Amino acid sequence: MQRSILKPILLATLVCGTLDILLAVILTIWRGREIGGMLRFVASGPFPAATEMGAAGSLLGLAVHFTLMAIMVAVFVFAARAVPMLLDRPWVSGLVYGLITYAVLDLIVVPMRFPAAWPPSALSITTQLFAHIALVGWPTAFITRRQLRG
């Protein structure tokens, strides 16, 4: 009997989403910016008016962040269910998946929505690669392996 995919999706979303948003908060503070503004910017991807929404826009940004994370995690979990060998070497599959999520989000989605953000700085590339690999790819692969294989 196959194990449910709901638990790994929820668990990895919470872990990866929390790790990723904590890095974003740290980087925002380090850059001398406001955390609420960073969250409103996240929300402004799908909801451009969020930048003018104050605290509600910030909460919307948090919801958008975790929704995107759930989608990224779910794609990996469904892929692992279809191709179980992805879980044989989670260090490798997590690394590759982190690179894929980086390419999709930072090289396609973000430049399409925010053309002024292109080209990214070397620091941005470095931090985003770290986040996508170490905070999303690897935890997702290991959590999925643990939850689907036991």
Output the keywords.
150 residues; mainly alpha
3D architecture notes:
The protein has 150 residues and is mainly alpha-helical. The chain has one domain (6-149). It contains 5 helices and no strands. It has helices at 6-30, 35-44, 54-82, 90-113, 122-149. It starts with 5 loop residues before the first helix and ends with a helix.
Would you kindly provide a brief summary of this structure?
This protein is an all-alpha fold. The chain contains five helices and no strands.
Secondary structure elements and their pairing?
Layout lengths: L5 H25 L4 H10 L9 H29 L7 H24 L8 H28 L1
Order of helices and strands: HHHHH
Number of helices: 5
Give the quaternary arrangement of the chains: single chain
- What value does the average pLDDT take? 95
**Radius of gyration, taken over Cα atoms and rounded to an integer in Å:** 16 Å
- Counting DSSP E segments of at least 2 residues, the number of strands comes to 0
State the low-pLDDT regions, or none.
Answer: none
Total separate domains: 1
